[in-house]
Amino acid sequence: MRIAIIPARGGSKRIPRKNIKTFAGLPIIAHSIKAAQECGLFDKIVVSTDDDDIAQIAVSFGAEVPFIRPRELSDDHTATIPVIAHAIRALQESGELIDTVCCIYATAPFIRTQDIISAYNALIAHNKQYAFPVTTFPFPIWRGVKRDEEGNIEMFWPEHFSTRSQDLEEAYHDAGQFYWGTADAWLEGKPIFSDAAITIVLPRHLVQDIDTPEDWERAQLMHKALQLS
Q: pTM for the full model?
């Protein structure tokens, strides 16, 4: 059985009620639910939440909320893997036989069904334990600098001050949209950013992590630009 699990706690502080805030005419979590529905891969789409309002909205868009996430897994410091592992165990206790699980973030309005499918195909084809999307950094990380409180800077890698951009190795970062994983990998707590994973590459204009009000505003501008293109 393939399951989509969407973690969506209610206590977001930097963007209050972030997981159900309206984005492009819908609660933002609805974009993730709809992408999971449309890709046709999932036997169940489950939302893991500690919040009644989020639960009601998730159900209204066709997801299931078969349990309420415990308080100890709903604070600012809880990582993704324990939340997904808890959801898998809760579903297994109700008799579900789960092979693969896709953790889809609630704030991923640019998520595409074809990317979910491509990552799943990569997971199976390469016999990996995880698969997820990445994208390139817009500026060479090797020329990155650190800045102190007085405004002084220092290069992280000063040896690359004179290296031509085209000679620097391309660097990638997590797209922050979803992670496929085998049930065993989630339950065993295997690290995602490791040789247990295979990745697919997304274009930068489809990637925007949403953690701050500035991120939210940028995502809205990106969505408008995509609608006009």
A: 0.95
